[in-house]
Each structure stands twice: as structure tokens, then as C-alpha cells.
Amino acid sequence: AQTVTQSQPEMSVQEAETVTLSCTYDTSESNYYLFWYKQPPSRQMILVIRQEAYKQQNATENRFSVNFQKAAKSFSLKISDSQLGDTAMYFCAFMKPSNSKLTFGKGITLSVRP
Amino acid sequence: NAGVTQTPKFQVLKTGQSMTLQCAQDMNHEYMSWYRQDPGMGLRLIHYSVGAGITDQGEVPNGYNVSRSTTEDFPLRLLSAAPSQTSVYFCASSSRLTGSLGSPLHFGNGTRLTVT
Question: How do residues B11-34 score in pLDDT, each as one tens digit?
Fold first, then answer.
């Protein structure tokens, strides 16, 4: 079974600065997908970024990028130029493509200070 | 395009009552699933389905039933509500067509359920 660990329960960052959210996972699979989801106070689950394990290049989406270290089983999310709207809970998640099931970490609450 | 629609948004039940949380998607997705979110626990999989007529248990299935009679709908039934089922429930779907495996899940807006 897969496990996803987000060891930091909370983080805070000043507006316009850069912050990195950590995530590690454990799996014996060689082919899988990793995701970061954002959950603002509205409760909506919003996809931030997706990484395919067999792609060495780190995924980027505008101000969001990942540092994917497959051998270390690490998948951190970097948010550049933090904005007040980035305040949310962020979840790291693992998917085995054969069954589409997502396994989530416990989440991290990010606060962006003005 | 509605995506994944969950109803109701909020619900209060008394212990022992039963109810059904509704979930519908209009994206013709094969895969549908139910998660519950509890503080400090992340989202945990309750049940899932890879197509009409096919369902399977997730990590925390006890006290819940599902069925999938159509591609669009995937209701979650609480047979006899307990305070431990107080949670936020999310329905999610994704495509499993060839070439789409690994597609991200699309989530509904959640149902906050309180059992007293």
C-alpha cells in the first residue's frame, strides 16, 4: 500500500516571498502520478499541479513548480511570489494509474501574510 | 458544464437515521469515488467505482453503501448514522480511457454532515 507523508502541519509566508511545501511518499510502484491539490476556505478541491513519475522534468504551472526526486521519493511544491489568495490547505496525493485511486497526505495549512 | 455535483451541501442527522448523499457527473467519467475529510486526517477513500455495475471498498468503508447503476450517478448511503460519521464528504471522478490513465480527479464541492 502507498503512503503519503506531509510532516509540516502549518506554514506561514510573507506576501511576494517564496515558500516550499514538503511531501514524501512510499511505494514499490515504478509508474505512478503525483498531485498537489489546494483547498481554500471555500472547501473546493483545486488541482494545482501534476507530475508523472516516468518524466524526469519537474512540472511547472505559472508560479507553482515541483521538485520531484524519484529516488528519494520526495515531491515538494514551490510557490513563488506568494499571493494572499494562496492561503489554503494543500494536499499532496499519489495515484497508481491502474486503479485511479488517490492516496492523500494529511495536508498543510499555508497562511500568506500581507 | 456542471462537472461533479453533490447534494446536499449541509446535513444534520440524528444517530440511527439513514440518508443518501447524491453525486452526479456530466463528463462521462468511468471512475467515481467517495472520500471523507476529517481534521488532521487528510482525505480517506470510502468506496469507489470503475464503471457502471462495479464498486469496491476503499480505506474506510464501514457504515457506508454505494451502488453504480449509471455512469453519471454514484450515491453514498449511510445506513444508520453514528457521531463518528460526522465529516465532510467529497465525491470525485476521472476518466479511465486509454491515454487518460493518471488523469486528476475532479471533485464536487463537498457535503458537511453532522451526526448528533
Answer: 999 999 999 999 999 999 999 999
